[in-house]
Write a structure and sequence with these properties.
The protein has 159 residues and is an alpha/beta fold. Helix content is 37%, strand content 16%. It contains 5 helices and 4 strands. Helix 1 (16-28) crosses helix 5 and helix 2 (54-61) crosses helix 5. It is globular, with a radius of gyration of 14 Å. 40% of the residues are buried. The structure holds 4-nitrophenyl phosphate (4NP).
C-alpha cells in the first residue's frame, strides 16, 4: 500500500505538532488506500529532546491517543526532501518553513488549515501560554483539520 510521508510542524514541537501527529495517526487508521508515515518537528530548537507538553499528553490520553513517547526536534533540511507534505500549524510556522526550504520544495509546505482547494479552517492557535481548556480547543480543531487533510489526500492529484 502507498505510504504518504507527512511532517507536522509548529514552533516548539511540544504542544501542537506532536498532538497533530498523534491525531493524524489515529484518524488515518480507518482510511483505506494509503497509509501515513508521520513525524513532527519545530521551527525552533528550544525544546529539542523533550517529551510533549503534559497538557497535550493529557488531552490526547482522554481520546485514547498516546503521544508520551515523542521527542521534540527541530526541522532539518533533509525533511524537505524526505516528506511529501509539511503541515504548518500557523502562518508564522509557514513563513519560517518557506524561509528555510529550497524553492523547489515550497509546494510541499502548506498551512494545515488552508489546504489548496479545500475550505479554509484556520490556524491552530498556540496554546502554550493558555490553560487546559485551550488544549481541548486545539485537539478538537486538529481532529477537524486531520479529517479535512485525509479528504484532501483522497483527491487523485494530491496522492
Ligand atoms: P508549540 O507551542 O509551538 O505548539 O509547541 C509552543 C511551545 C513552546 C514555546 C512556544 C510555543 N516556547 O516559547 O517555549
Amino acid at each position: 500500500m502507498k505510504s504518504i510521508k507527512v511532517l507536522t510542524v509548529c514552533l516548539g514541537n511540544i504542544c501542537r505538532s506532536p498532538a497533530a501527529q498523534g491525531i493524524l495517526e489515529n484518524v488515518s487508521a480507518s482510511r483505506k488506500g494509503f497509509t501515513l508515515t508521520l513525524d513532527s518537528a519545530g521551527t525552533a530548537a528550544y525544546h529539542t529532546g523533550s517529551a510533549p507538553d503534559v497538557r497535550s499528553i493529557k488531552e490526547l490520553k482522554k481520546r485514547s491517543i498516546d503521544i508520551s513517547q515523542q521527542k521534540a526536534r527541530q526541522v532539518q533540511q533533509s525533511d524537505f526532501e524526505f516528506f511529501d507534505w509539511i503541515l504548518a500549524m500557523d502562518r508564522s510556522n509557514y513563513q519560517n518553513l518557506i524561509n528555510m526550504a529550497p524553492v523547489h520544495y515550497h509546494h510541499k509546505v502548506v498551512l494545515f488549515g488552508e489546504l489548496p482547494g479545500m475550505s479554509v479552517l484556520g490556524s491552530v492557535k498556540d496554546p502554550y501560554y493558555d490553560g487546559d481548556e485551550m488544549f481541548k480547543v486545539m485537539a478538537d480543531h486538529l481532529v477537524e483539520l486531520s479529517t479535512n487533510f485525509l479528504n484532501f489526500l483522497d483527491q487523485p492529484q494530491n496522492k
